[in-house]
Amino acid sequence: MAGVDNVGQNGLSYVDQLKKLQEQKKPDEVTGKQDLKQEDFLSLLTKQLSQQDPFKPVSNDQMIAQMASFATVDGIGKMNSQFENLNSSMTSNQALQASSLVGRDVLVPGATGVKKDAGSMAAMVKLPQSIDNLIVRVENEVGQLVRTFDVGAKPVGDSRVEWDGKDQNGNALPAGKYKIKASGLMDGKNNEFEVSTYANVNSVLLGKGDGNVLLNLAGFESPVRLAEVLEVGKA
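^ Basal-body rod modification protein FlgD, sequence as received from the core. Prediction below:
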């Protein structure tokens, strides 16, 4: 069985001819892709067989290797298609499971949260070590300090804090966005700690083909990825 010469009569190598063939392929009218299919490789192989130098044939091993590469390319294409289908199925399943979060509170990164009418607002403070006195400050949407209160001693790890929604004089503040800040003495120095806030889930969205499931949160302009949720509140 004759093989395929690495360089055809036109002086182009096998790889160069592949590149030339791909450049000549017209873009798909729908996707705009220029992918070479298995029949393109076979067409090129047939052309090379007809143009090879009969005095310099390539070994059968090289011929078999090229045929094996065709099968590998075709197999990879099918595998990619199967992975896309699997990803779509997993995303739909995640969205179905996430739908149970609608109406529930979730903990998301960020110190800014939303206070409901005549309601309180909860947050989670991450402490790198235990402290004797945790101080919480609450700022309104324009950055004005509206409340400061002491939480007391807290151990290392996550500590839940809750603001009753009132100012320093005990007056209930209107609904809206507020920022929770937490600080305390650690090794003799005042430190600011990482804060996450709770928000209520309004609806669930599928991502734009990227496999992400998004949550629309009450009072938030942009959705949050399900993967970012740190905790789910009790039903």
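Residues 1-9 have pLDDT under 50 and may be disordered.
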